[in-house]
């Protein structure tokens, strides 16, 4: 079966279930006695097993299978959860996640699951060996026992022979039935049950080889034999049996006792009359677990009515819509120029509707940040164990929504910051007690909307940032002089943490502080048009605040003109527009600067940066400047004209123009012209 | 071969898989249910010729749903979809009147074999 087309669904659902397992396991760690949670975990593991086996990811299927066995024992209260067992389960889930993610990256999802499989098996058998385990050990041992050397008389004891002879005298046939199951038959015992079920109404099984219990425990290879008393014909019985799935071969012979009655080699282990009772007892055994199962079914919340849409389709929709926005702009312009009242009216109406449509499409692309936050409780748990710290993670605003593209990118920076808080921020329990703080540290992770931005805050109640330490380090590294350092504000000092090659960790731990520090976080967030701020009080807390735009594809911008060309500058990086007199421009070390509200701001001539041709030189006493910011740094961009504020649709320049300096993309304006979008971050260095 | 089939499984993945297999072989999937309750309801609505029923599901498991369906329609034909290690459940399902079972991972020919035998 070609499974590629199902891969996406497999990945999505696997991820969901792994997340559910993680959540439930954390919950279980708090309430180890809560069997309902175990049932939920079991169900998720079970689903993953089924899907992965279908997809041919055998390692995943094997591991989940063993996991399931252990969970099954726990939920049936055979095995009690201990921290050691929890750890093995957590490791298994990690490995599963690893495999699923490797599949996403295109690998075959294979991994070395053997050690964990062994551990899980040990747990399952160490406490109490289950039927499954013994079955696996013994299923191959019985092969030779099942074969009969052509005759069947040796199987029968005197009593059975008497029964056969008597029934033959009342018109019944004694049949010897050999049944082989197909090689890939998986639930052999259930097949056997179906066979017995089919025969039940037709007569009586007086002998089975191997014995019925062994058949039920799957202690046979593929074939087994029955002695069956019936009034029906051979053909009818054969027809019934052949119609059962996975029955490969049925051979039925009449038993004539006169042939081999001398053969008295009776097998000791054959028990002739067990068929009914064995089946009955197995029925009863199986009732219990299923009833428990049903109780568990009730706890899962009803899923909401949604459909899954490929994110790429939404991207296409967005793209098509942005084309419409461009046309809308043109129409508006044309309508204004013509002044035709009905045209103006209908264009206005269209604008309103397309505005609503735009909101709707943007909303569709919004996903709750929960997706990202979900994995943090687990991560914090593991980390705090590794670091021997006690911590409580408080998550708020997990339902805050962000554009899908932002969500995909924000995970890693957040992981980094959280690790940082836990590793460097929080003190060890002993230290905390000494300081009179509660032993358990607290890390808050909050997300909320504000205006056109989403804020994510990570606050720890640890030791806070030590201004002097940071400065010393920066001076040591030659990043600045002592004098410069003393003039900086706290915020500026803290921002030094985000400079490349800066790490305050005294010891490089396993967790963080490996040099690829916070500067990576900053560049990633800035790549998303976001910003990071730090706030801290020594001995009390540290707060990292990330500010992100709601969406990346439609942005508010300021249109400007230089010579005959139009450019767009994202409003998010503009501080102010201003006009300066030429005589207010100073030269400092060959660099033009202006005094902007007490700050010395370097001027950048966009005309020179972008080598814009100009027909005739205009001499003017004044220059128009847009002051833009990047973190704490500022720059003034010299332009000819401010055209106005406009909502623009960001389009990238495509593969032919991958890295144009200081240009982040292009947009099409209402009059059909193309305007390049200026990346201010690149201009401020 | 033809016939109307109701596919029941809590994993959308599995439903799509079975559905495609069935469609390729000329069966019509008239409805899909994600849990036992839905299955019972949809069975009454659509009166399919056959049901493929997952065992482990939220809300109401496959065996319970099978029993409900059989209670309402004694001739209902239900094939259980089980995973390895659910022997006991399968036996229980057959006692409750399931006509056959298929084991995950599904093989298309096995699915079709089971269905054609049951519908014969």
TrEMBL record, chain A:
The modification Phosphohistidine is found at residue 46. Signal peptide: none annotated. It comes from Desulfuribacillus alkaliarsenatis. Keywords: ATP-binding, Chemotaxis, Kinase, Nucleotide-binding, Phosphoprotein, Transferase, Two-component regulatory system. Its EC number is 2.7.13.3. This is Chemotaxis protein CheA. One of its GO terms (molecular function) is phosphorelay sensor kinase activity. Residues 125-141 have a biased composition (Polar residues). SUPFAM superfamilies: ATPase domain of HSP90 chaperone/DNA topoisomerase II/histidine kinase, CheW-like, CheY-binding domain of CheA, Histidine-containing phosphotransfer domain, HPT domain, Homodimeric domain of signal transducing histidine kinase. It comes from the Bacteria. InterPro entries: Bact_Chemotaxis_CheA, CheA-like_dim, CheA-like_homodim_sf, CheA-like_P2_sf, CheA_P2-bd, CheW-like_dom_sf, CheW-lke_dom, CheY-binding_CheA. It catalyses: ATP + protein L-histidine = ADP + protein N-phospho-L-histidine. One of its GO terms (biological process) is chemotaxis. Residues 341-552 form the Histidine kinase domain.
TrEMBL record, chain B:
It comes from the Bacteria. This is Two-component system response regulator. One of its GO terms (biological process) is phosphorelay signal transduction system. The modification 4-aspartylphosphate is found at residue 54. Gene3D superfamilies: 3.40.50.2300. It comes from Desulfuribacillus alkaliarsenatis. Keywords: Phosphoprotein. SMART domains: REC. The lineage of its organism: Bacteria, Bacillati, Bacillota, Desulfuribacillia, Desulfuribacillales. Residues 4-119 form the Response regulatory domain. PROSITE patterns: RESPONSE_REGULATORY (PS50110).
């Amino acid at each position: 079966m070609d499974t590629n087309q199902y891969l996406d669904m497999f990945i999505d659902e696997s991820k969901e279930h792994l997340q559910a397992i993680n959540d439930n396991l954390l919950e279980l760690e708090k309430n180890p006695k809560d069997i309902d949670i175990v049932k939920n975990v079991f169900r998720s593991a079970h689903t993953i097993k089924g899907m992965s086996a279908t997809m041919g990811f055998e390692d995943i299927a094997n591991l989940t299978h063993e996991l399931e066995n252990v969970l099954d024992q726990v939920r049936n209260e055979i095995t009690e959860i201990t921290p050691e067992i929890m750890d093995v389960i957590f490791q298994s889930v990690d490995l599963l996640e690893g495999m699923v993610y490797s599949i996403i990256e295109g690998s075959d999802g294979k991994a070395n699951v053997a050690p964990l499989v062994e551990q899980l098996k040990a747990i399952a058998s160490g406490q109490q060996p289950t039927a499954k385990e013994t079955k696996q050990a013994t299923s191959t041992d019985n092969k030779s026992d099942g074969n009969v050397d052509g005759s069947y008389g040796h199987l029968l004891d005197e009593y059975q022979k008497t029964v056969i002879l008597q029934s033959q005298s009342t018109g019944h046939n004694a049949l010897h039935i050999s049944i082989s199951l197909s090689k890939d038959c998986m639930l052999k015992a259930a097949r056997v049950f179906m066979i017995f079920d089919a025969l039940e109404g037709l007569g009586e099984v007086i002998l089975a080889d191997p014995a019925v219990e062994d058949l039920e425990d799957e202690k046979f290879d593929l074939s087994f034999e029955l002695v069956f008393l019936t009034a029906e014909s051979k053909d009818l019985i054969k027809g019934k049996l052949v119609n059962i799935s996975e029955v490969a071969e049925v051979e039925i012979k009449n038993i004539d006792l006169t042939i081999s009655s001398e053969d008295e080699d009776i097998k000791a282990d054959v028990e002739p009359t067990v068929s009914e009772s064995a089946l009955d007892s197995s029925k009863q055994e199986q009732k219990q677990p299923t009833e428990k199962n049903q109780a568990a079914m009730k706890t899962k919340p009803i899923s909401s009515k949604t459909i899954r849409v490929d994110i790429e389709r939404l991207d296409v929709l967005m793209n098509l819509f942005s084309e419409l926005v461009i046309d809308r702009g043109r129409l508006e312009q044309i309508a204004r120029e013509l002044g035709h009242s009905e045209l103006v009216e209908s264009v206005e109406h269209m604008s309103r509707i397309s505005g609503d449509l735009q909101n709707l499409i943007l909303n569709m692309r919004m996903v709750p940040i929960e997706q990202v936050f979900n994995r943090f409780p687990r991560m914090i748990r593991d980390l705090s164990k590794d670091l021997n710290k006690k911590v409580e993670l408080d998550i708020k605003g997990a339902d805050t929504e962000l554009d899908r593209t932002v969500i995909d990118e924000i995970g890693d920076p957040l992981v980094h910051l959280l690790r940082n808080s836990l590793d460097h921020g929080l003190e060890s329990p002993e230290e905390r007690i000494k300081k009179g703080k509660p032993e358990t540290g607290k890390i808050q992770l909050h997300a909320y909307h504000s205006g056109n931005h989403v804020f994510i805050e990570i606050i720890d109640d640890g030791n806070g940032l030590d201004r002097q330490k940071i400065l010393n380090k920066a001076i040591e590294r030659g990043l600045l002089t002592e004098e410069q350092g003393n003039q900086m504000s706290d915020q500026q000092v803290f921002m030094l943490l985000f400079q490349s090659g800066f790490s305050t960790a005294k010891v490089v731990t396993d967790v963080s502080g490996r040099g690829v520090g916070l500067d990576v976080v900053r560049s990633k967030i800035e790549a998303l048009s976001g910003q990071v701020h730090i706030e801290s009080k020594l001995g009390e807390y540290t707060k990292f605040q990330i500010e992100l735009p709601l969406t990346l594809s439609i942005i508010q911008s300021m249109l400007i003109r230089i010579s005959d060309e139009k450019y767009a500058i994202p409003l998010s990086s503009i501080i102010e527009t201003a006009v300066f007199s030429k005589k207010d421009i100073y030269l400092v070390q060959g660099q033009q600067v202006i005094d902007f509200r007490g700050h010395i701001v370097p001027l950048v001539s966009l005309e020179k940066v972008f080598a814009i041709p100009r027909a005739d030189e205009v001499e003017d006493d004044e220059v128009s400047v847009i002051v833009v910011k990047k973190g704490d740094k500022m720059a003034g961009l010299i332009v000819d004209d401010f055209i106005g504020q406009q909502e623009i649709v960001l389009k990238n320049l495509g593969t032919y123009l991958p890295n144009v300096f200081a240009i982040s993309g292009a947009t099409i304006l209402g009059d059909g012209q193309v305007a390049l979008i200026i990346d201010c971050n690149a201009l401020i260095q | 071969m033809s016939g109307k089939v109701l596919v029941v499984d809590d994993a959308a993945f599995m439903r799509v898989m079975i559905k495609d297999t069935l469609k390729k072989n000329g069966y019509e999937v008239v409805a899909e249910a994600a849990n036992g309750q839905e299955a019972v309801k949809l069975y009454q609505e659509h009166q399919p010729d056959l049901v493929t029923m997952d065992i482990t599901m939220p809300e109401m498991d496959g065996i319970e749903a099978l029993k409900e369906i059989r209670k309402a329609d004694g001739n209902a034909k239900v094939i259980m979809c089980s995973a390895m290690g659910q022997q006991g459940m399968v036996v229980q399902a057959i006692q409750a009147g399931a006509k056959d079972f298929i084991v995950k991972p599904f093989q298309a020919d096995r699915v079709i074999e089971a269905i054609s035998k049951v519908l014969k």
